[in-house]
Specification:
19% helix
């Protein structure tokens, strides 16, 4: 999703809701939504929640859950993650078993000091209730 042009980013999320999200089936969306979970950047996060999606981090996460962003060269010595835009959202009969942020710990850096990515990852375990 696009951060340079907020209107395009919002339109992309709306397309997601009108396409694959337009179902009564249980559904999980995972990705970099480029919309702060605190609602401070674009209305996308709020639109997804208003469409009935639940945020795994709000259910089982601990701490800030920040996933973005390390320096472009990945060499910043101290983590600069300061926003939560990488999300696991679901709608339907799921139980949230666990959620964790990965790649945010200084011990995750390579021997040469690179962070694994400019974003930390969100790892979630969901169990479908059938």
């Amino acid at each position: 999703m696009c951060t340079t042009f907020p209107a395009i980013q919002v339109a992309q999320a709306n397309e997601l809701l009108q396409g694959p999200g337009n179902t009564d089936l249980p559904l999980v969306f995972v990705g970099d939504f480029n919309s702060n979970a605190d609602g401070s950047s674009t209305p996308t996060y709020g639109n997804l929640i208003a469409a009935g999606f639940a945020d795994v981090w709000n259910i089982a996460g601990s701490g800030s859950g920040f996933t973005c962003c390390q320096a472009d060269d990945l060499l910043n010595p101290i983590s600069s993650l300061s926003s939560r835009i990488d999300l696991v959202l679901f709608r339907g009969d799921f139980d949230v078993i666990d959620v964790d942020i990965v790649g945010e710990d200084p011990d995750d850096r390579t021997p040469s000091g690179l962070w694994p990515s400019d974003h930390a990852g969100v790892m979630a375990t969901l169990q479908f209730r059938h």
